[in-house]
Amino acid sequence: MASIELSRIQKRFGTAEVLKDVTLSIADREFVTLVGPSGCGKSTLLRILAGLEAADGGTVQIAGQDMTRVRPAHRNLAMVFQSYALYPHLTIAQNMATPLKLRDLSRWARLPVIGPLSARSAYRAIGEQVRETARTLQIEALLDRKPSQLSGGQRQRAALGRAMVRQPVAFLMDEPLSNLDAALRVHMRAELSELHRRLGATFVYVTHDQAEALTMSDKMAVMMGGRILQFGPPDQVFANPATLDVAEFVGSPKINILPGEVDHDGRVSALGRGIPARLLVDGRLAKVGLRPEQLHLDGGADGWLGRVVHRENLGHDLYFHVALDADDQRLVVRGAQDRNGAESLGDAVRVGFKPDRALFFAPDGTRLHSVVPAKLAESA
Amino acid sequence: MSEAALGASATTRFATREVLKHVVLILGALVVLLPFYVMISYSLKAPAELMQNTGGFFGSQADFLDDRCILLGGTEASCMVNPIAYNYDSAFREAPLFRYLLNGIIVTVSIFVIQVIVALPCAYALAKLKFWGRDAVFGLVLFCLLIPVHAISLPLYVVLAQLGLTNSYAALVIPWTISVFGIFLMRQFFMTVPDDLIDAARMDGMSEYSIVWNVMLPTAIPALMAFAIFSIVAHWNDYFWPRIVITGDRSLFTPPLGLREFRGDADGSNFGPMMASAVVIVTPLIVAFLLMQRRFIEGITLSGMK
Which of A6-15, A24-33, B193-202, B294-303 is the least confident region? Predict the structure, then answer.
């Protein structure tokens, strides 16, 4: 088990700069998610950490040791791939035994026929470890099958088994759930988190799905354009995003961004409606971010006037897409739980909001913190 | 016209087209099969029947008098032989056909094994490793595919002669050990192997060579089978190159060279035994193809992974 330090990692593919001075420190036993849209450099960062890709600059430290130039196998990390990457010609047991054989057996003992005869006890120990791991993952019954005979979820477990069996210092996972169907994905989210707690190992998990990042990780690093924009616990990233990009990426449905204005006293208004908050910048245009759950459809007389153009029923939640009359602006509003979604398509509604959690951004996307009322705005 | 009549005419037209297709295909098949028909028929018939072109496919299978047996002092009664027995017996007796078959196996198997040892790492590097000049090297591979063997046979012969290697197994094997076709075919197949699989092997601690033999080779079996058929058929049947580098030593003759043994000089060709040895020579290939037919087609369509 080990802490991981990535410092000032740079990577270029040709002229494209994929990673720009990325620094990230992961504590021992932490579950860290690298999340971001595709092409943000998250997979490249993971591959550099694994040693499958060489960085153009920067260092990789694992458990306090410089591993920048060390071969992947000697870093003692295990990786789970999106496609599972099980050896198609070997059974699951052989797949799981492969990393152990390569680590524990001499070249001589790895030979077919002669090897198992000469190093019988070593082979028995490996077989025991494989069965033990299979028992933990409940795939004992599958050990004699080939990967092509397994379902997606079973292959996923087998790949996990191959990673777990050699007790690595950290697990690296590159979108391991993307090839599963939706229900299984949700199930495996919980199972992976549980596994993390049980193994007490460091997990580095790459995904483009912000829901996976929010549900599973101790800390999430939101990456965009080759940089880490924000690194922190999921609830903090969600409630207190550092930039407009982070606010828009995290949370589903997406946060509503309204054009705002700040007068000379620092008072903020959005679409002509005042917001009880005060910013230190004056006279500048700002953007106001309101999450769908902070909006409601009974805004009273001073609510924004609009029409319901789309209803999105998720079962546990009901979202209304409202086109505002005054502006070319659409808002996503979470329907009130108790009203059972009385509004239907085409209905005129007045959208109101709870002002205490509104987020403010400068035109360049940086976060602006309100000073008044400080307590309310910063309560997140 | 009624609808039924319309339907009927459509069916007939459809059927005519099918019939036409099959007629063309059958004619093509006949053209291809005719030499085999002649070969097998000749290997079954007596010399007199061959000369007079009588007896149909099987011949009468009546015993005939073996002239050479008489010359060697046999009695007439002891020299009566069955045509099939005579042809196949002569094939093995007059030329060391087993020796030729063994040579054929030694040469084709060594060529194929060395070709694989060379081609697999090359193909892996060209398909999966990034290095400066990779595309240029692959371009050269494609270019080499275009060079006919006969164009470079003379310089090859000169080099082998200078090294004193003519009339040896080495002369039969060495020029074919690097197969650009093999490199090309395997490279195309390796391109379809997912990168994740190779990365997983690296994480497990395999060296690059170990990846080639333990991961790439097992996944590439269908493509390798296809290549094996190409390689083995080409070198088993090769007459041109052995004819050039094997000049004296008959114990090094490959099966096609062995056929020349029956080319008559003064007393005319002895077709019966000649065709019998031809049958013996082509049989292993046909049997091998029939056994591996499915894998062969799999390999050609390069769909092994899915």
Answer: B294-303
Calculated CA dihedral for residues A183, A184, A190, A192, nearest 10 degrees: -160
- The answer to whether B215 and B174 have CB atoms below 8 angstroms apart is no
Tell me how far apart the alpha carbons of residues A140 and B170 are, in angstroms, rounded to a whole number: 52
Sequence-separated (6 or more) residues with CB below 8 Å from residue B161: none
Q: What is the mean pLDDT of residues A132-142?
A: 90
Residue B279 has pLDDT above 50, yes or no: yes
Residues A52, B219: C-beta atoms closer than 8 Å: no
Helix (H), strand (E) at residue B87: helix B83-94
Q: How many CB atoms lie within 10 A of CB A179?
A: 16
Q: Which residues of A touch B219 (CB under 8 A)?
A: 88-89
Partner residue facing B203 (CB), from A79, A83, A89:
A79
Reported as a pLDDT band with limits 50, 70 and 90, residue A378 is very low
A155 confidence band (pLDDT: 50, 70, 90): very high
Residue with tokens 């616990």: A233
Chain B residues in contact with chain A using a Cβ-Cβ cutoff of 8 Å: 194, 196-197, 199-206, 215, 218-219, 305
What is the rounded CA–CA span in Å between residue B174 and residue A1?
54
What gap in Å lies between CA A62 and CA A49, rounded to an integer?
9
ipTM: 0.83
Crossing angle of the two packed helices A42-50 and B195-204, in degrees rounded to 10: 30
Q: Please give the Cα distance from B123 to B188 (Å, whole number).
A: 8
Cα A101 → chain centroid: 33
Q: Judge whether residue B8 has pLDDT over 90.
A: no
User: Which one-letter DSSP state was computed for residue A303?
Assistant: S
The single-letter code of the amino acid at A38 is S
Amino acid at A140: E
Q: List, for residues B25-45, the tens digit of each pLDDT value.
A: 999 999 999 999 999 998 888
Comparing CA positions, the residue from B186, B189, B218, B185 lying closest to residue B201 is B218
